[in-house]
Amino acid sequence: MARKSRPQRLLLDLSAWARSSHPLVRPNWSAYLATDRLLCHPVFALELLHNAINPPGYQQLRNDIEDGFDWLWPDRETAEIALRLQERLATTAVVGQRVKTADILIAALAVQHGVSVLHYDSDYDEIAERGGEPFESVWIAARGSLEDIAEGTGNARRAYRKALGERLVQLQNDADLDVWPALIDWVDEQLRSRGIEPPRAPNIATGSTRRSRPGRPEAG
């Protein structure tokens, strides 16, 4: 009886991880996890951990990826492949110089170990087509299929920022002393919930630095 070959393993790119909870992506992502196909590596880890919001969050995320995935590590050969890829891209297409360095390194690691790259990033198609080194570029969802939703989310965030900015200007112009302390307290709570110590806020009534929150005695 013929032995079943193991499915191709996939190096993680941050663009795939960032979309893993999307309804169109979740079934495939769950299948990849269930079959132990995903591989971690330092480039992905550095990009992912850069987004940790505080020290405990950083450590938890690092523990999760260290314990949850097999790893591949770059070495001198990885670097040599990456340089070859970059040279071919730079000398065969104008777009080559715009391919991200991190993506070239990930592609080089895939070439070296004979694995694929899981992503949502057209850089990998460019590298696979023009880099002259064999590896498979695997989209976590069909190219362009998630753009409308991503664009909608970006528009919503921009609208929120604009509305908040306009509200702050309005409050400043109106000098609404009853509202400003509550707004400052709310912002402070948002910062503290993310492990960030807020700066001292001005005392609206006196112009001095406010050292304690409302309802708490001043430090002696």
Structure description:
The protein has 220 residues and is of the alpha/beta class. The chain has helices spanning 14-17, 26-34, 42-49, 55-68, 76-92, 101-113, 123-130, 147-174, 180-193; strands at residues 10-12, 38-40, 70-71, 116-119, 137-139, 201-202, 209-210. The strands form two sheets. It has a five-stranded parallel β-sheet, sandwiched between helices. The relative contact order is 0.11. Mean pLDDT is 79; it is low at 149-153 and 206-220.
- What is the H-and-E element order? EHHEHHEHHEHEHHEE
Tell me the fraction of residues in β-strands, as a range: 5-15%
Helix content: 40-55%
Please give the radius of gyration in angstroms: 24 Å
Low-confidence stretches: 149-153, 206-220
Treating each run of at least 4 consecutive H or I residues as one helix, how many helices? Answer: 9
Mean pLDDT over the residues? 79
Distance between the termini: 82 Å
Number of strands: 7
The geometry reads as elongated
SSE arrangement:
Layout: E1 10-12, H1 14-17, H2 26-34, E2 38-40, H3 42-49, H4 55-68, E3 70-71, H5 76-92, H6 101-113, E4 116-119, H7 123-130, E5 137-139, H8 147-174, H9 180-193, E6 201-202, E7 209-210
Helix pairs in contact: 5-6
What are its keywords?
220 residues; alpha/beta; 5-stranded parallel sheet; two-stranded antiparallel ribbon; 9 helices; elongated; disordered C terminus
Q: How would you summarize this macromolecular structure in one to three sentences?
A:
This protein has 220 residues and is of the alpha/beta class.
